[in-house]
Specification:
Blueprint (H helix, E strand, L loop, with lengths): L10 H13 L3 E5 L2 E4 L2 E2 L3 E3 L1 H22 L2 H14 L1 H14 L11 E13 L3 E8 L6 H17 L1 H7 L6 E2 L4 H20 L6 E5 L8 H12 L3 E5 L1 H7 E3 L5 E3 L3 E2 L2 E4 L20 H11 L4 E3 L2 H6 L2 H9 L2 H4 L6 H8 L5 E3 L2 H9 L6 E4 L8 E3 L3 H7 L9 E4 L10 E5 L2 E5 L2 E12 L2 E2 L6 E10 L13 E3 L1 E3 L1
Parallel strand pairs: 4-25, 5-14, 8-9, 8-13, 13-14
Antiparallel strand pairs: 1-2, 3-19, 5-6, 5-21, 7-25, 10-11, 11-12, 15-18, 16-17, 16-18, 19-20, 21-22, 21-23, 23-24
Helix pairs in contact: 1-5, 2-14, 3-4, 4-10, 5-6, 5-7, 7-8, 9-10
Length: 485
Amino acid sequence: MPFIPHPELPSQVIDEACEWAMMHGMAMKTSTGTARHCAFSLTPVAIKRDVFNGLKAATPLIARLIHNVSEDHAFVQQIMKDVSQADPFFGRLLKLHRQIHGGSSQRIEAPRQPLLMMRTDYMDGRVQGPKVVEFNGIAAGMGPFGQRIHELHTYLQNQWGEAFQHWADSDDGELALNNCMNELASGVAQTAKRIRSEAGDCGQPVFLMVVQDSEDNVYDQHLLEMELQKLGVRTVRRTFRQLHDQLYTGGNNRLMLKDIGSLDVVYLRAGYQLCDYQSTDLLEDECCEALSQTRVFIEKHAVAVNATVSQQLATSKTMQMVLTMMPPEELTRWGLSLYEAETIQEYLADMLPVTSDTAKWFAEKGDPDQWVLKNQGEGGGHCVFGEDILPAIKAMPESAFKAWALMRRLYPHERQRPALAVRDGYTKEVNDLISEVGLFTIHFNGEPLTDQNGYAGYLIRSKPSTATEGGVHSGQGMLDSLLLV
């Protein structure tokens, strides 16, 4: 159904909201020199204050757990071994991990320092309560958009109060503060300055963002860069192909970039799929070998990195499943108290490995509406739902089972009142909007970089309950914010 102007809302409200979004960089690139505003909800979704506070308390604990797991290199290799044989991409990642950290017979001390900028995504299930959907340890973006949509909702509440209240999800409530862009930038700037100081280098700290070629989600990236520039950090952007010819080693094992000099922080917004490492102009014995070696080269230098190869493996669906299946007592091996481990476990959704036994159980007794089949992929398009699950499992060779997992399906609360979605300058009433809540954390060498134990803000993506793909730029999703009730 096409988006149409809503008869109960002055067109000026939508015009100004869309213009505000474009003016503040809440946009997607469409072609050279053109852009469109991101889809957004006109008013925020309500969430119980105690639920949100619980998520804010638990998420930094999860991030600390992930950091400690990611630095347990023998454990990472042990858990990911079978997956690497079933999934070619994770096979390559594990190969890189062994190059950086050594294998079972030899351990190598990698000089890179881990900067974990992570987004933990939740859905608030009607029955189970809020549960983790996935960990995002690489290319965990859209924090700046999370702050921008909160600011847009604040603007609309102040400027168009009557229209805002008409479409609000609750008569009462308080907009949940979201300074995600500023908090992430502050943490990165602190890290960059520390790395440069420890190296004894003078001059402006430098932040490198590794990006995909010709991507559309560039404004979110530029917003973060602009905040870093305000904090005195120089920002540069390169693809893996560009870095292949431009990186070299400087004094004190510093990572150097041609025409720029020493680098202090490397932040990967690419590298979560094989195509990010493909190049048609390089001769190599196997696909993606040359550009993937760029990650090994980076991590063998004195530089802060997000995401390290180990962080990426530690936030995989398989690792999520393994941690979910552990009793809290086992989680304490990674520096958590039993209380902290039990707190984390409350938010982890049930997961099962795909094996011949679980495949048989699912065929005989499993309820397809209560499970989701997931592979290791990042982003949308990597889940199988409902009646499609069993045929998908039956079509797999057993050698592919290790690349998949079953997760208990979450049916989140629908918005209490109809919402007004805004896309391409037009509106559409949605009666069954549901939301995914992503909380950002930032830690350097396991230490929090914000005043809230590492919590750095949130991202809300809402979509109709019937939509399986909720991407903001490649699905039916829209940016949203929170109203605390």
